[in-house]
Amino acid sequence: MNAYSEDVVAVPVGTTLDRFIKRQQQASPAATGELSQLLRDIALAAKIVQREISRAGLLAVTGSFGTENQHGEAQQKLDVIAHIRFLRALRNGGEVAAVVSEEEDQVIHTGNPGSKYVVAIDPLDGSSNIDVNVSIGTIFSIYRRQSQPGTPAVEADFLQGGLQQVAAGYVLYGTSTLLVYTTGQGVNGFTYNSSLGEFFLSHPTLTTPVDGRIYSCNEGNIVDYPLAIQQFITACQQARFTARYIGALIADVHRNLLKGGIYLYPATQAAPAGKLRLLYEGFPMAFLIEQAGGSATDGQQRLLTKPISTLHQRTPLIIGSTQLVDLVTQQNKLLL
Ligand SMILES: O=P(O)(O)OC[C@H]1O[C@](O)(COP(=O)(O)O)[C@@H](O)[C@@H]1O
Ligand SMILES: [Mg+2]
Ligand SMILES: [Mg+2]
């Protein structure tokens, strides 16, 4: 799961993302530069999408695109714009053979069959927040393909399992734009300075508290939640925990990662298999939180070991500080 060598690179705050990537690559004799370039391509797409988002209200790119994705969700214009922008950057960058996106049903071949990486992506996470100017994000997950470079990538390249991710991350378009990622050697965050057009290291070696007093879930669904989850939320309320729910997985997990807490999206009657998608929401966020010292389960098992058989497979998700995630997962298993 570790793309670069074991040596963790100590880099001062304020270092540009480009220099950080270069240092990580130099510290890894096996590195060939392809993953480094791929990470740069993702950062480029994030800058372009950040610009689109920052002027969304002016350019009338808010609202529905008038189409539905394979999940039966109305695609927002910015869902589609972000999808196109990331696809274009990954295609033009030349380091990615194929992409799976929340916004398209099938594997998307990029015309770079010689490349050794494939990328799964949630181009815009928190779509219901777009029109109301609340935080949204992008989630990405990178695999080294199993199929032979030079031949078309296949679905199996995306279904290797969460432990086979070589890198994962998110871009949070919030009060500032933040790129947070891991290559299996801890988690680092970079803040975008749009006037300089650069990401700068602002959150080195992010770690999350083992415990916390924040819970995040859509309490409007609570009657549908498994009994153990209902009991856990009641216990949080009785213990005067703080309830925080932004309605964007990235933003809720990011806040809880920094402050300590737990995000829960269990199975519900409306979504008996869970709402979130394992490949481009569950697995990448689980990889990140574990690299930051936290935990993620589906309510029963460690999420990164959960078998995946389809590209858009859904999953319940419980993620955050280890003591909270372990507690509710143990209770849930007991009551199942
Ligand atoms: O509106 P609900 O049911 O609370 O769901 C909110 C959750 O769904 C999501 O919006 C799903 O992601 P998308 O916006 O990428 O479809 C999560 O970001 C968020 O945590
Ligand atoms: Mg999402
Ligand atoms: Mg999305």
From TrEMBL:
Q: Which GO terms describe its molecular function?
A: fructose 1,6-bisphosphate 1-phosphatase activity
Q: What is its EC number?
A: 3.1.3.11
Provide this UniProt record's keywords sorted from A to Z: Carbohydrate metabolism, Cytoplasm, Hydrolase, Magnesium, Metal-binding
Q: In which pathway does it act?
A: Carbohydrate biosynthesis; Calvin cycle
The listed locations are: Cytoplasm
Q: Which reaction does it catalyse?
A: beta-D-fructose 1,6-bisphosphate + H2O = beta-D-fructose 6-phosphate + phosphate
Residues at which Mg(2+) 1 binds: 102, 122, 124
Superkingdom of the organism of origin: Bacteria
Free-text remark on how the cofactor is bound: Binds 2 magnesium ions per subunit.
Q: Which residues form the Fructose-1-6-bisphosphatase class I N-terminal domain?
A: 16-204
Residues that hold Mg(2+) 2 according to the record: 122, 125, 281
Ranges where the Fructose-1-6-bisphosphatase class 1 C-terminal domain occurs: 209-330
Q: InterPro entries annotated for this entry? A: FBPase_C_dom, FBPase_class-1, FBPase_N, FBPtase, Fructose_bisphosphatase_AS
- Primary subcellular site in the record, as a coarse category: cytoplasm
Q: Which cofactor does it need?
A: Mg(2+)
Binding residue positions for substrate: 125-128, 218, 245, 263-265, 275
User: Can you tell me which family this protein belongs to?
Assistant: Belongs to the FBPase class 1 family.
This protein's assembly is summarised as: Homotetramer.
Name recorded for this polypeptide: Fructose-1,6-bisphosphatase class 1
Instruction: Supply the source organism's classification.
Output: Bacteria, Pseudomonadati, Bacteroidota, Cytophagia, Cytophagales
